[in-house]
Design brief:
three-stranded antiparallel beta sheet; mainly beta
C-alpha cells in the first residue's frame, strides 16, 4: 500500500494531461504583468513542483515569453498549463485551476504584488510579497 500523494490535471479539451506525484513545494497567487497577460486574468495561481515529479501526456506548445522563461499550453484549446524558468531550475509551476481538483491545494501567499492591478482588493489574510521572496515562492 502506498501513501504517495498524486495530483492530476489537464487542459479544457482533454488533449493534455499531467500528474504530479508529490506535495507541491509551494502554492501562490502571482500578480506579475507577464502572468496576467499569459492567463488573461487579474492574477494567476500556481503550484510549484520538482520537474522530475511531474509527467505530461499529449501535445504541448511552448511560448518563450523571455529568454529563460517557457510557458506551455495546449495547442488545440489554448489552455495554459505550465511555467518554467532557468531561475527555478528543476522546478515546474502548474496552473492550479487546471488541476482536476483545484480545491485540494490552497494558496499560501501572493507574489509580485507590486504589479497588482489597482482595482483588485483581496482580504484573504495570506502573506503578500512585492516580488518573489525566495526561489520556490512563498515559504509555508
Amino acid at each position: 500500500m502506498s501513501n504517495m500523494v498524486s495530483y492530476s490535471g489537464g487542459c479544457a479539451c482533454g488533449a493534455v494531461r499531467y500528474r504530479a506525484r508529490a506535495e507541491p513545494k509551494w502554492v501562490a497567487h502571482c500578480h506579475c504583468r507577464d502572468c496576467r497577460r499569459a492567463s488573461g486574468n487579474a492574477f494567476t495561481t500556481y503550484a510549484g513542483f520538482a520537474t522530475v515529479q511531474v509527467t505530461m501526456q499529449g501535445p504541448l506548445a511552448v511560448y518563450l515569453s523571455s529568454p529563460d522563461v517557457r510557458r506551455s499550453f495546449c495547442p488545440k484549446c489554448g489552455t495554459p498549463i505550465s511555467y518554467d524558468s532557468e531561475r527555478w531550475s528543476g522546478e515546474i509551476h502548474l496552473f492550479l485551476c487546471t488541476f482536476d481538483d483545484p480545491a485540494a491545494l490552497a494558496p499560501r501567499g501572493h507574489v509580485h504584488t507590486a504589479d497588482q492591478v489597482s482595482w483588485l482588493h483581496l482580504a484573504d489574510g495570506l502573506p503578500r510579497f512585492r516580488t518573489t521572496p525566495s526561489q520556490g515562492g512563498p515559504e509555508t
